[in-house]
């Protein structure tokens, strides 16, 4: 096997030359700074050997299926796949921030950086003396990006949160489900991803601002507020019309009221728990669907003659359509309906995305990188392709402390014997 | 030239030709931060003007709340692309723009790459369901179809698998595409500050959703496991305990009871005990994780009863005060009274056509060095045609 050169190199991309002192951990922060690392920034992830980042501890191991939450009591910090996915293209150093000499090293790193990022519970950075005011002393044009659930002002800043809590509090859970029963909400931390994307954007807006004016900034992004921004027109219905969403016919599950689509739903397909989404918006869509079904007698039912009629008769419509989809493979049905011009899509799981989705393959949405402990692994890449800019995938995630020598001696210019001594004392 | 205190987007001129919420929301993100976003509409108005919900009692072109949500802070220009004049006006707008947001394969007869070549500083932000090319590029999509094909829908729904996967609300497929359109544009803008040149930014909603399912792909990439949906909690390779509890007032709280962590366990038992509802959970054998695990269904039942005796807000705030990560499932109408959001001045009053101002979410970002004002009134159809086109 070819030995991959893991030594840091000159990065390429629109963010090349930007150095980020990255205190982020867990999901939101790591995903937010991942985009910076993917497009050329030197993102230096600062970790604590005695308090391992959760994704290093979670057992996403090849050939070893466990449910999230079933922790490995003695994890190999370099083996976790989730950490690899979140932290590729970053540099990794270890600093014990609970020691004064560790904090001194961190301050030197900050002075050599121009962006500082963190997503700790409120008060942690302050405890280390790393307030925005102090960061400005170390680096006058610093950008200090603070990512949290509730933001750094207001009575609930101390509230604990993670994706599902943010989704609940912001209203995104309540608006998701079948009417008349508990919300189905979200089966993943949607807001970890979205808050991360909004934080990436905020940091790049600040970089753009600094390029234009020379000035840095403090950034405060609250995941709850991002979530509320994502609620959609239902919120304006409440604000402008005084609508109440705690009502028996809200939310509407897979049915779509605006615009009045019908049939509009997720229908059973052949196989175990396989499904297909179909969306019919107007008469042209309906005619195309009916033709593809072979114009069975039930489609001539006068109730289904107009879009309004179909919308009013969805129970009957869905029953007929389900009887047809149930006999067929979801992907085959999708291709048939799409060829006829009807919006339809198989409900794909991750294996489908990876193995039977030619569109993702065409765009190279997933890519592979080798890792010294994990071996070759697959990664979630950029959904955006550029005509003149490429994602610069130079390395999988750093091993714990992998770049200590490069960052502390080459980048910061610390004497090798000082680094050796601090390492010996457990400070680095 | 941007000066200190001014949002960097204040210097941006954007032309928006969008037919779906992904492109429209991208335009809104820019306009709310101060960009001059000119929304180009056909004579009858954008399709989003005909989509509900509507202002109660109205259904005219100015009454769509859907339009108002997705088009705050923009300017509206009406032009008829079926006429030579209209096409010339559009071409002139694009020639002066920094950014063109579009979901179309051609604009003024040119594809995205030809447009970028014709206008070297222009960033063509193509926001489409599947991307500009590839085997599915001409497939049709929608929010539901996008969420299905991209993977998120596979994780969402109920424990009962006779019920299909359920689409989460609020057009989140489109919103995910818009997030990547925003960050993709920023990368292109930063590239342009280096070399003065624009480019084509090709955003695929399908790819955006395929990389946004959180744990689903890592579960496949590493242990080769497929997650299965569960009611309002993480889809997993194997089932986990319910995390949604109903309260006395009928509202639900989200609370994942993880037995293995000693501190939250003790905080929960202390809380239940303070109301005389801990029953036998105070017994010393429950200090042992193995005992808790062996009696999990008993624990779960007691916790269910406990929450049924509290109202939702008390469960949320008192639980959080005790350090437990509990979330109340707020309805949108309950957000306006939230003391934390009020203290942050989050909601802003936005003028409404023909009615009282309405509260809308303020900027999702806050910067100390420059303003991030948030939304202003959505434009009336063609409101800025004369100002922009000079006629």
From TrEMBL, chain B:
User: One of this protein's Pfam families, by short name?
Assistant: CoA_transf_3
Q: Which PANTHER family match?
A: ALPHA-METHYLACYL-COA RACEMASE, SUCCINYL-COA--D-CITRAMALATE COA-TRANSFERASE
Q: Provide the protein name.
A: Carnitine dehydratase
Q: Which GO terms describe its molecular function?
A: catalytic activity
The species is Prauserella flavalba
Gene3D superfamilies given for it?
A: Crotonobetainyl-coa:carnitine coa-transferase, domain 1 (3.40.50.10540), formyl-coa transferase, domain 3 (3.30.1540.10)
Top-level lineage group = Bacteria
